[in-house]
C-alpha cells in the first residue's frame, strides 16, 4: 500500500515495541502504569480514583489495583480532598517524585542519545508533530492530557 497512513500505522506499531528504559537496571524502575499516573499527578495535582479512571479511560477497579500498589510502594499517599469534596485523593509523595524524575531523566537521556545525529530543527519538528498527533487523539477520545509548563519540563 502506498497510503501514508499505512506507513504511520506500521511505524507506530514498531514504536510500541520499543521502550526507552528497556535496559534500565535500577532496582527502583517504575512500572509503566505507575510512571503514567505519577506524571499525571505531578502536572495536575491530587486526583481521586474516579478522576484517574476518567483521565485514563480505565475501569475504577483497574485504577484501584494500580494505586494500591503505588500506595504500598510509598509512591502516593491518600489525602482529604483539598477542595473539600467527599472523595479522598492521591498525592505524589517525595519518594514518588524522586523516582518519576529519575525515570523521566533516564528517558530524556536515552532520547538525546537516539536523536544525537538529528538537527535541533528536526527534533523540534518531530516533537511538534508528536504533540499534534497526541492532542488529536486526545480530542477524539475527549480525554485531554494536560501539558507540563516550561518550569515543570525543566524541574
From TrEMBL:
Record-level Gene Ontology MF annotations: DNA-binding transcription factor activity
Stored InterPro entries: ArsR-like_HTH, HTH_ArsR_DNA-bd_dom, HTH_MarR-typ, MarR/SlyA-like, WH-like_DNA-bd_sf, WH_DNA-bd_sf
Matching SMART domains: HTH_ARSR, HTH_MARR
SUPFAM superfamilies in alphabetical order: Winged helix' DNA-binding domain
Pfam family, one: MarR
Leader sequence residues: none
Residue ranges of domain HTH marR-type in the record: 1-135
A single GO BP: response to stress
Source species, domain of life: Bacteria
PROSITE patterns: HTH_MARR_2
Protein name according to UniProt: Transcriptional regulator
Organism: Nocardia jinanensis
Amino acid at each position: 500500500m502506498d497510503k501514508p497512513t499505512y506507513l504511520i500505522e506500521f511505524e507506530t506499531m514498531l514504536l510500541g515495541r520499543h521502550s526507552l528504559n528497556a535496559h534500565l537496571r535500577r532496582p527502583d524502575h517504575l512500572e509503566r502504569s505507575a510512571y503514567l499516573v505519577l506524571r499525571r499527578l505531578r502536572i495536575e495535582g491530587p486526583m481521586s480514583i474516579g478522576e484517574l479512571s476518567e483521565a485514563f479511560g480505565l475501569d475504577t477497579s483497574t485504577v484501584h489495583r494500580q494505586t494500591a500498589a503505588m500506595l504500598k510502594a510509598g509512591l502516593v499517599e491518600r489525602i482529604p480532598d483539598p477542595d473539600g469534596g467527599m472523595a479522598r485523593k492521591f498525592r505524589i509523595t517525595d519518594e514518588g517524585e524522586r523516582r518519576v524524575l529519575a525515570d523521566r531523566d533516564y528517558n530524556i537521556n536515552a532520547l538525546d542519545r537516539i536523536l544525537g545525529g538529528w538537527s535541533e530543527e528536526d527534533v523540534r519538528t518531530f516533537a511538534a508533530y508528536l504533540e499534534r498527533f497526541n492532542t488529536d487523539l486526545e480530542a477524539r477520545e475527549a480525554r485531554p492530557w494536560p501539558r507540563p509548563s516550561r518550569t515543570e519540563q525543566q524541574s
